[in-house]
């Protein structure tokens, strides 16, 4: 597709209510919105361990119209080891830019004050799949990893 065709295509995109719910859960988890060359544009970046390929493929299917190329694997070096990650990026879009303004302050992810209106059961399930864990098979306690947020955001 040519650049003009892509820009025209992006004008037709709208986030469905379901995609918005999923997006909230992803943003509370490991999802990332990158601000682009215009302050009101952002793109969603999803990247997980290759072990979560099925989950990433499911997210890809949910946002497929928003994505130009299929998810792909890449090697990442961290903490002296090489890991294989798997993910994708969406097109840059104003609708995602609105979420970027809600969930980020000065490049730091925050929890919006109105999260109670944004977070649904589906969003909570996505957050758990994205960044949750079980304490142990024996205890079956559930954790949501919130270490990336400041304490006041966690309290919200």
Taking all Cα atoms into account, the compactness measure Rg is: 16 Å
Number of strands: 8
In spatial order, strands of the major sheet run: 1-2-4-3
Ranges where pLDDT stays below 50 over 5 or more residues in a row are none
Structural class: alpha+beta
What's the story with the biggest beta sheet? Answer: 4 strands, antiparallel
Describe this entry's structure for a reader.
The protein is of the alpha+beta class. Helices cover 39% and strands 24% of the residues. It contains 7 helices and 8 strands. It has a 4-stranded antiparallel β-sheet with strand order 1-2-4-3. The chain has a two-stranded antiparallel sheet with strand order 5-6. A two-stranded antiparallel ribbon has the order 7-8. Strand 1 (32-35) and strand 2 (42-49) form a beta hairpin. It is globular, with a radius of gyration of 16 Å. The mean pLDDT is 91.
Provide a compact summary of the structure.
With 156 residues, the chain is of the alpha+beta class. Helices cover 39% and strands 24% of the residues. The strands form 3 sheets. Strands 1-2-4-3 form a 4-stranded antiparallel β-sheet. The chain has a two-stranded antiparallel sheet with strand order 5-6. Strands 7-8 form a two-stranded antiparallel ribbon.
């Amino acid at each position: 597709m040519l650049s003009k065709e892509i820009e025209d295509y992006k004008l037709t995109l709208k986030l469905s209510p379901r995609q918005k719910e999923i997006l909230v859960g992803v943003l509370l988890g490991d999802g990332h919105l990158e601000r682009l060359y215009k302050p009101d544009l952002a793109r969603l970046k999803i990247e997980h361990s290759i072990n979560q390929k099925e989950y990433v493929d499911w997210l890809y299917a949910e946002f497929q119209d928003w994505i130009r190329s299929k998810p792909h694997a890449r090697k990442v070096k961290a903490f002296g080891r090489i890991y294989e990650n798997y993910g994708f990026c969406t097109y840059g879009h104003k609708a995602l830019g609105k979420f970027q303004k809600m969930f980020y302050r000065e490049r730091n992810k925050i929890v919006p004050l109105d999260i109670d209106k944004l977070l649904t059961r589906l969003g909570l399930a996505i957050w758990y799949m994205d960044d949750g864990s079980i304490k142990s098979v024996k205890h079956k306690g559930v954790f949501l990893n919130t270490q990336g947020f400041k304490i006041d955001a966690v309290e919200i």
